[in-house]
Amino acid sequence: MTSLFPANFDKSFRAKEESEEELSPPSGFCLTPDGNFLLADDFNHRIQVYDSQFNRVHSFGEKGKEQGQLQYPKGIAVDKEGHIFVADSWNHRIQKFDAQGKPLLVFGSCGDGKGELNEPWDILIDPSGVLIVLERYNHRIQFFDGEGNSLGCIGQRGTTLEENLANLFETPLNLLAPPAFEFPTSIASDSCGNYFVTDSGNHRIRKFNKKWQEILTFGDQGDQPGQFLYPLSISVSPNDLLYIADLNNNRVQIFTSFGQYLDSIDQADTALEAPCLTLVDSNGNLFIGLTFDTKILKYQTTLETESLLAEKLAACEPLQPEHLNFFSLAQEKNNNEAKSLAALEQAMDLWVKNDIPANTTAPLRLGRRAFAGKEISNTSFDLAITLMENQLDESRKKMLAAFNSWQISALKFNEIQMKEQQEIQKDPQGLRPFNMELYTSEREDKKGFRETRNAYYSFRKSTQHLYDLIFHLVESDPSEEQFKSISELLSRQWDATTKNLNNYFNEKEKREESMVKILGDSGGDQLLSFLQQYYHNGRTLDFLIQLQFPLRAHCQVLNVLARKARDNEKISKFVRELCKPSVFTENATRTMIRFHEHWYTLDILEALFFETMDVTQPCLEKETPIQEPGIDDFSPVPFDSENLDMTQAAKILLSQSAEIKFENGVLSLGPIKYKTDSLKGQTKELVSKCLSALEAQSVFDNKYVELLNQLNDLEGQRRNLDAQLRQVGSEDKATPIGIHHNIAIMDFQLGLLRRMIRGIDTNENLNLHRLAAGTAVLKVLNPEDSKLFDEISSYSRNLDNKIREILDERRLRNFEWIPLREQQKQLASSSDISTIDNSINVEAGIDEKKASVDRLELEFKKFTKTKSSIRQILNFLDATPPVPETPLKPVFSVSKVGPEIGMLFYPQGLVHNSKGDLLVVDHEHHQIHCFSPEGKYKFHFGTWGNTAGNFRYPVNLATDSQDNIYVIDEGNGLIKKFDAMGNFILSFEEGILGQVFSLSVDGKDRIHIADPGNNRVSVFGMNGKEIPLPYSEEQSNNLTEPCGIFCLDDGSTIIGDKSEFLLKHFDANGKLIRKIKREGLGFGDIYFIARDKEHGIFGSDYWHNQIIHLNDDLEMVDIYRRPGNRFGELGKTGGLSIHKGRLAVSNFDGRKVQFFDLQK
Hints:
By secondary structure, this protein is of the alpha+beta class. It is built from 19 helices and 53 strands.
């Protein structure tokens, strides 16, 4: 022990040899308000009560299952009234006793459902009286009120590696939601109301804030200072130091509440074998319980304040950055900003000059300070971005080294394994000696796998930390010099990422050439060589998916910069440099092409890259070379052309979202400009070329469908191989080998086919560009020649019909999934082994439905992209659309930034509060995000779970006059109410409402909920109580499964239902006053509605990617029907909200919220 953190041994009590009664090692400690010491006597199944002098007063409990009896009691807690709560571990329940040990209440039973328990291990009572129970074998934390009613739980079983993998592969939270625990055993809280949990099986400590959002994790497996081997107990002293029983390291470690290691109490002080319990009282007395000894050890610890201890530690020579950071955090906690910043700057300076810590978040505090409008010095700014960039660079190096090392061990394992498989196939029944070489190589392969995954995770977190810092600094309006530093950093990181991607793609593609040659050589016997390269490339592709993650965060920061650059030339200058086509667009295009086989990653990158290309385009140089085209420059492009010009391909992508303009004799399509004079006198030939290009579009369309049919057949064969594999008996060792080899070959062929399908895009883009440019030139040179224009209009109408058919079928196929998913859930919960075949069949049915939906999504994207180009042409031709189009002007969009930058966003419902802040439901991540009216991220709350502040698939929300937030928590069957900052207030209507999607708050702060299952609109007060209205029955008679609702200022409501009428308007007394027929509008059900006094009513059609605009008489004004994934185009269209003439729109599969200026 150091003199700064003395823990002097005082005495021990409860020694076995000194007692007249039989004692067992303690399993739980607690202090009562009157100073008594409670102890769980584990093997004697009782609670012992000692006075402040450690004289035994009495005990209660005996072994048994009846009320008042115990089986291996563990944690103990006492409430303000002196009631004693005991974790009756092996009875899987909590018992409540009075101060004398009289049983009062028992709740819980063995299981993993709500209210059930499995080995409750520790208890803590929070200031509001809620019981927080750690369940060791359910690997979770469950919350109860004082009467034993469950308030929900958080956590599930998971190792650190599993949690990291879930983060890397963005596993849905319903499958593995953080926090993941492995045998949690102890909980404590500090003076700020933060909670600390010993995640013993993962050898770490988890820290949560009052909302149970994880804010810190520290520790890993090992015997070095700061590492753990099964931390079993944690206690917080009055000065917020943590005392942690480190079981198998035979010590108690001391940490700050911010996770910095300080010191330890170990065998050098006194015999300390397998400590399992700690407790610190208000006088600084530390009590330690041991696993194999009955006695309790008592130490005297320091009571000096955290601030004073931190100050002394920070002054110790040589200066340590962790100690300075502790001092900085302690000063920040005490609101001493000047000292906190000075110490942080000093710590960062030492880190930059010396060793770079892994995944430090200290500089993020500076970013958040700047974000809040507070000043930070240039020195702090430079140190922060240098430190975080160095950390990411170091993390990248370690990841590259780990991957390359794993490839070596994995290749060796594959080689030995395949030789072993050959022997099995030659003699399936033969006896073979144990293959030590195979065993050793497999172990090394698994070790490399784990180390690589950990390196991937560290790289991703370092990426998020750097870009989180950059995001906060960018939003804080830094100086021009600081913007220059940020711009140079972003440029370096973009170059580093694209360089690594290109290097590994080059290697991968060389191996693919060899693999294609092997498959084409029917006479050769090179299967082993093929398989070696196949597995090598599989690992490489997985690595490339991790390498691309910084590109996502990079695009999100560029989009923020583009939003801020709209009115700021200083920022626009930096955006122009970062987004030059040769820097950004060409590399982005190349990256998309090279990910053509991995459609999930490609889908994410396309959406981000296209958005960034489009929103940054106004910042790009306007002076670009003007071409003088020849007639052959408008020739149709064959679908199988292999003449890829990356510069040209990138420019065409930029041109696709640009308006075609003709000014001063120059025709412009984004960055591509033509002089039209060179084609005077050749209009006849040009018409012929354009008609041929239009005819070529039919070839592209047909070829696309043909290849999708091939893909569908091949995927069906692939699923059949999986089915064959499931049917093989466990004793058959040879057959699975052959099937796995066929799977490898087929997967490779599927990759080539997917690449071929998406590769058509590049040639089609060029063909569409030539059609658009040629048609525009004709419009300029010969505006009266209508033959080509008529053909394009006809093709456009055919596209509209095709897209409509695809969308109708997509909706139908998605709804077909629902009963299969329900059946799958029921079968999964069954313990009957006879249901296995049914489960397999249901899973196969789901796979087929998914393949069908995936195909429809591909067709939709292909045809909407074509339609977008045709619309571009028709707009230049001034063609009148068949339905008036809403004049929405796209302004900017927002996505997920802040601590979760780089992650995906799935917005559904949204609403503006009275301040103009926009609240958005993130459906798939079970969160609510808040943005300012200008699109600046402010905060978010919630995650997966059934506790008060968490959600399971929230779908929509509304606010009242006090800015309280009401959220439809679909998966939990609740409406939850929060204050403006996301603090939970109450929930209501569990089990009363059906499945609901829409709600709205009227001028009297009553919550109206469209309840299609019960064919009604239910109305509730702010207290969550239903308000019966006299007109409810009459209104219900005029409704057919209401699914969307919006309250108007005069007390009337606009309701969307599933009748022949799209929308209905009811007055304040529930009387139907007007409606609009659905027929002829081309709209499905309306779930989301918004209204603005000046601009009228807007309703979104989620499944058809469109918005209808109506006047207050429910007469159609126009329609915004622009499906696609470019700027201003719509994906699945969710929530709508209007603030000061600006419409916010949720774009679900575009993973963003778009903002449009409304125009008259």
